[in-house]
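Support request, please re-run this one:
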Amino acid sequence: MSEPRYIIIHGHFYQPPRESPWTGLISPEPGAAPFPNWNERILSECYTANAHAHTMEGTVVHVRNNYETINFDLGPTLAVWMQGHGKAAYRAMLRGDALSRERLSGHGNAIAQAYNHSILPLLSARDRELQIAWGIEDFVFRFDRRPIGMWLPECAADDDTLAAVAAAGIKFVLLGPEQGQYQGEDSGTRAAGPFLWSNGAAEVAVFRFDREMSGTVSFGEGLDDGARLAEWIAATALALPEGSALMIATDGETFGHHKKKGAAELARALILLQRRHDVVVTNCEQYLAEHGARGKFSINGASSWSCAHGVERWRSECGCRLEAGTRQDWRLPLREAMEFVNNHGAAVYDRFAPGLVKDHQGALRRAIRLLIDPNPAVHEEFFIKFGVAGEVSRERLLRLFDMARCGQASLTSCAWFFDDFGGPEGRVALRWAARAVELAAELAPSIESQLLERLREIRSNRHEIGDAATLYLSLKTREARGRV
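Re-run finished. Output below.
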């Protein structure tokens, strides 16, 4: 009897930190109408829809929690918001992972994500390590287990990034077929592998998603009819060698937000695939555990899944744009301005944290837990472990941690993805940068005047926006009014 083929469908669920770093509230976003903001709209259309996806089969109604079946990552900045504002969908994600572990010999559907969705190859070694460590800490807090896999924001990777995730104990990542060189028994096919990357000191498995199928699901007609999708997936998988896996990877928001019937048609496809005996729907963790690596992977320079020019989309006018005629010469100076803020925060932390905490760098790598977990026992354990005595020292340290988080949030990748920084995503970066500058100024001379000089040179494509300094100041003024 031949071995079945395996099918893995991955959803990358993520939103940037849209909430105010001062109040924790999201300002009205008119483009999301009739909902007050984009998080609320996508919660309804996607996250909740996948928690109880309704499909019809004759007169029978099937209601499924799609998170029980698909491989997925829950972006930490989205999870923070969902924990308070999308509790039903949030619980469905946690339950989906728990039930998948029960069904698949302890191998869960959920994987971690680097914390702020910043482009890891563009970060310093210190910031890259921090993003990975915070992503792991967030995952442990929510899913009550160590993550085996990690989603790299925008699938952006290079040798240093792969070495960093491997050093952190991550066993696999997901990348596109054009992001490196795949060698081995599955290399000449559309199979997912996985393929082993190694630098001699560390190693990590790379699952390769199918670009054509992923693109058709994301941008084409793949989710118009779940039955047709199931047939296409099965036929493609059965053309692979025995025991191989086929992977589809897409933004999770495709299932219901970008594609209005996406959650229901995904559920329909999953039902039909699970009824078959020649294919098995599984997750990355189980497949890796049972089959191991099926080849080798190497990478030459930085690459990503959404920029044909490596990772230039997040620092240069590389030609990637959504609207013809727009210019992106603002990308590099905006990146340099946000790095200026983040680096200043790091210098302030290094100057003042050693007087408050033992092993200030180790404490920073664990610090995100204190900012997302209100449990007093967790806080007390942390302070005892790192030798932080006295309420004044503890409060000052927490503000330094918050300053670091704000600085990291200013590098959220979405600010550079679109054609202009004046949209909701660019405003996210500027708001968090403003808060980082404010917190740093509690202990060191303010850098805001220097930041504004940099921002004044950054011009928007939109006449009503003007320059980045004007937008930065208007956002600060609006936030101040909201706090009165």
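The chain has two domains: 5-298, 323-483. The longest helix spans residues 331-352.
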